[in-house]
C-alpha cells in the first residue's frame, strides 16, 4: 500500500494563503489617494485672537512666522497660506482648497486689519515660455568653447 504524503496537498494551500496575505497587506494599508495640508494650518481660534491694535510680535507669537511678508510704503503685511491637496499614488496632485490669511500692519507695526482669501479670489497667470533673443548669434555653451580655440 503506497503511503500518501501530506506535503503535496499543503504546498498549494500555503502558496494561496501567502498570496492572499500579501495582497491584503498591499490594499489595506495603502490608499490610492491621500489628503494632506501644505503650509500653515489656519485655525479659527488663532484668527479670532488677532485684533486691530495688536503688535507684530504678538501676531508672530499667536500665528507663528509668516510664510511671506510684504512691505509697501508705510504698511506691511504677513501672509499665512494653507493649501489642502489630494495626491494619488502615482504622484498627481490636485488642489482642493487654498486659504490665505493676510494680516496688515501700519508704520508702527500694529495690526490695522486682517483678511481671508480663498481659491476663488485668486487669478490664474499664464507663464510666458518664449525667450528674448540676444544680440548676435544664439550659440550654445559648446559652440562658444569651440569658437574660442
TrEMBL record:
Limits of the Outer membrane protein assembly factor BamE domain: 39-112
Signal peptide: 1-24
Protein origin, superkingdom: Bacteria
Alphabetically ordered keywords of this record: Cell outer membrane, Membrane, Signal
GO MF annotations, alphabetized: protein-macromolecule adaptor activity
InterPro entries with a match to the protein in the record: BamE, BamE-like, BamE_dom
One GO cellular component, as annotated: Bam protein complex
GO biological process, one term: Gram-negative-bacterium-type cell outer membrane assembly
PANTHER family named in the record: OUTER MEMBRANE PROTEIN ASSEMBLY FACTOR BAME (PTHR37482:SF1)
Identification of the protein by name: Outer membrane protein assembly factor BamE
Amino acid at each position: 500500500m503506497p503511503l500518501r504524503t501530506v506535503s503535496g496537498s499543503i504546498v498549494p494551500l500555503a502558496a494561496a494563503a501567502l498570496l492572499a496575505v500579501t495582497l491584503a497587506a498591499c490594499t489595506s494599508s495603502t490608499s490610492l489617494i491621500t489628503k494632506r495640508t501644505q503650509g500653515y494650518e489656519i485655525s479659527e481660534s488663532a484668527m479670532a485672537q488677532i485684533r486691530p491694535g495688536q503688535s507684530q510680535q504678538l501676531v508672530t507669537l499667536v500665528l507663528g512666522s509668516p510664510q511671506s511678508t510684504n512691505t509697501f510704503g508705510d504698511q506691511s503685511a504677513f501672509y499665512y497660506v494653507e493649501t489642502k491637496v489630494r495626491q494619488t499614488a502615482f504622484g498627481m496632485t490636485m488642489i482642493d482648497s487654498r486659504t490665505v490669511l493676510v494680516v496688515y500692519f501700519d508704520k508702527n507695526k500694529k495690526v490695522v486689519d486682517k483678511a481671508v482669501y480663498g481659491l476663488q479670489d485668486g487669478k490664474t497667470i499664464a507663464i510666458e515660455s518664449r525667450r528674448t533673443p540676444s544680440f548676435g548669434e544664439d550659440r550654445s555653451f559648446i559652440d562658444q568653447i569651440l569658437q574660442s580655440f
